[in-house]
Amino acid sequence: MRQALRIFAVVLAVSLGCSLVVTSAAVLLKERQARNLRLDKIEHLLAAAGIAAEPDADPLQIFKTRIQALLVDLDRGRPADPKDLGIADPAAFDLRAASRDPTLGEAIPKALDLAGIKRRPRYMPVYLVRDGQAFSRLILPIYGRGLWSTLYGYLALERDLITVAGITFYEHKETPGLGGEVDNPRWKALWRGKQAFDAQGQVAIEVIKGQVDPARPEAVHQVDGLSGATLTTRGVDRLVRYWLGSQGYGPFLAWLRNHLNSLPALDE
Ligand SMILES: Cc1cc2nc3c(=O)[nH]c(=O)nc-3n(C[C@H](O)[C@H](O)[C@H](O)COP(=O)(O)O)c2cc1C
Is residue 187's pLDDT more than 60? Predict the structure, then answer.
């Protein structure tokens, strides 16, 4: 009987000890995981704008010194004051949580839901890249449905707010080698220099099925589709056009074109 009790006590102690180790590892790693995710997002954001982090440069430091995050009211098409919404840092704005929130988010009517996201935040963070105080590029968070997953990424525009500076996706679950080729640097490079809007200011960028014929005049707006991944291609085409259009950043881009010379200073 005494021996049974002793065995029981040892088993109890070992299991308590083990669960303590597992729990504390989970808690400690959670914090590190969150930090790594944030760092990964920042690296993708900088890469979209063509700001290559030098081997020993700290992406967080580059982000702090060269990037200005603004929170944009999508319907009004102009910056909103994050404090009015109880948001401390627009760069830490959680798109998913905001789109689900009854006041920060709203349902998208089916006919307008080109990106297949059902709901959207009423506000989105956007990122102004500065060279000194001069505005040089604009980075826009974008997301929408692919085949297996929602793709989250960034599209950057040059100072003219027309020419694409770059695109990156920091999260998706498309198939490696098929839809996962959205991460292929060669494919991402095809976006650079494309004209997102036509002469009338309408969204004109498109990801086509197959390869772009460079001899055609519309080639300046077109990007090759991913071979064997028509559905991911269509998803990327639609999500980019959704976010650049009137339901996305369209009204803000119109406002920004008129305010490029009166932007708040970087350290304000
Ligand atoms: C295991 C598996 C994974 C696939 N993953 C993707 C994918 O990530 N993206 C995609 O568009 N199509 C994917 N497909 C292919 C689609 O089912 C579909 O056939 C394809 O989009 C059609 O493209 P195509 O007309 O270029 O062949 C996958 C198919 C299989 C069998």
Answer: yes
